[in-house]
Specification:
about 400 residues; alpha/beta; Urease, subunit C, domain 1; TIM Barrel; 2 domains; 8-stranded parallel sheet; 16 helices; about 20% strand; binds N-(iminomethyl)-L-glutamic acid; binds fe (iii) ion
């Protein structure tokens, strides 16, 4: 068992008390800041954390590797819990169309949107897609993000979606253990024009493919776009029931353009997370508050599409567990920089500093089913993000500047 010691961080934000409060109702003090702090860990777990001057004698002068981290800041690992990073082509022209007055829904109805990226993705081979995926993961990792959830969903045929889930699986094996990938199956992202209804597409493509991939045991989660003109309440139920049969966690794109009670549906099915929630109202918020389903907010998407933001303050005040993710994708948020997005979102959402960091560490880890990380406390996994600055304040203050180590 190799033990390592990080000695003398300028600051460690442990989030210990946020962890004890299970990521809810957080005050600024729950950040658990330690100055001149050290961490003792082996490859599996954190063994000790505290001020450097208090390191227990047992760990010193035993020949353990000691790494001097003076002048740096340590946080629990940053987790991007919602991305769609496997896609071909881009939709720059759609961004311009929106600037010039068209809405996301208008563009989708005219054949743009997700179906546009479907063509761009179908034009690429499995090898091309893996290469692009690797480049994108490398960039995201360079910002200090160590766990990335990746959704399929731009193939939209049995064969191409099968390929995409395997591209994500390959990616996962290539980048581990430095980067953890969560493989999310989202063939229920849009209904291709060759199908008469979402029901028909579910029956012919999504459900049989989930059975095949379930058998292969390569999926971590399933997700679905529950929205008018995309997938219905019944489609969600059929997907979630099938996923349960395979013991796969469920997630949902909910209440993005309309309050279609997606948050309530998520809670009913014990989803890991309900994501977007721009239109969620009181009943959805109270369902989330009384559940373990994480509300994953995607502020970059509201900004990119010019939509009003989720009611984060009402959620937090009610005791909802809130995460923030990038939603990196070609159409509704072409930004892969989670720390930039969270820094911009914090004043819009009126977050305190602990709520901000907890939303992209502890609660984001819970949103992808990882309960053994997200805080720097004894017994949890030694997954950290380290920054080249002596103060945690500077990380979110310097919008868009990459301070990751
Ligand atoms: O999370 N809302 C559905 N899916 C993506 C958008 C994908 C796209 O426009 O390509 C999202 O915003
Ligand atoms: Fe999304």
């Amino acid at each position: 068992m190799t033990i390592k010691i990080f000695r003398n961080f300028s600051e460690i934000a442990t989030l210990a008390s946020a962890h004890h409060k299970n990521g809810r109702r957080l005050n600024p003090d729950d950040l658990g800041l330690i100055k001149n702090g050290s961490i003792v860990f082996d490859h599996e777990k954190i063994l000790w954390v505290g001020e450097d001057r208090n390191i227990p004698e047992d760990f010193l002068n035993k020949g353990h590797a000691e790494i001097d981290v003076t002048g740096k800041v340590c946080l629990p690992e940053i987790v991007d819990s919602h991305t769609h990073l496997v896609f071909g082509g881009d939709r720059a022209h759609e961004y311009t169309m929106r600037l010039n007055g068209a809405s996301y829904e208008d563009i989708a109805a005219a054949g743009g949107g997700i179906l546009n990226s479907m063509k761009g993705t179908q034009n690429l081979t499995r090898k091309d897609l893996l290469k692009l995926g690797q480049q994108r993961v490398k960039t995201i990792h360079s910002y200090g993000v160590g766990t990335i959830e990746v959704k399929s969903g731009y193939g939209l045929s049995f064969d191409k979606e099968y390929e995409l889930s395997h591209v994500i699986h390959d990616l996962k094996n290539i980048v581990r253990p430095e980067v953890q990938i969560i493989n999310t199956f989202m063939a229920a992202h849009a209904v291709p024009k060759s199908f008469n209804s979402s029901y028909e597409y579910m029956k012919e493509v999504v459900l049989p493919l989930l059975d095949k991939l379930g058998e292969e045991q390569i999926l971590d989660c399933v997700d679905i776009f529950h929205e008018e003109n995309y997938f219905s309440h019944d489609d969600v139920v059929s997907l979630f029931e099938r996923a349960k049969r395979w013991n796969i966690n469920v997630k949902i794109h909910a209440d993005e353009f309309n309050d279609n009670k997606g948050a309530i549906l998520a809670v009913k099915h014990e989803a890991l997370s309900a994501d977007h929630l721009l239109r969620t109202t009181e009943d959805g918020i109270s369902a989330l508050a009384n559940s373990n389903t994480v509300a994953t907010l995607l502020p970059g998407t509201g900004l990119f599409l010019g939509k009003s933001q989720a009611n984060a303050r009402a959620m937090l005040n009610s005791g909802v567990k809130v995460a923030i993710a990038s939603d990196f994708n070609p159409g509704s948020c072409h930004c892969d920089n989670l720390i930039l997005i969270a820094s911009i979102a914090a004043p819009i959402y009126e977050l305190n500093q602990t709520e901000l960091w907890c939303a992209i560490t502890l609660n984001a880890a819970h949103a992808v089913g990882l309960k053994n990380q997200g805080a720097i406390v004894e017994g949890l996994k030694p997954r950290f993000s380290v920054f080249n600055t002596d103060s945690i304040d500077r990380i979110t203050y310097n919008w868009g500047k990459n301070l990751a180590h």
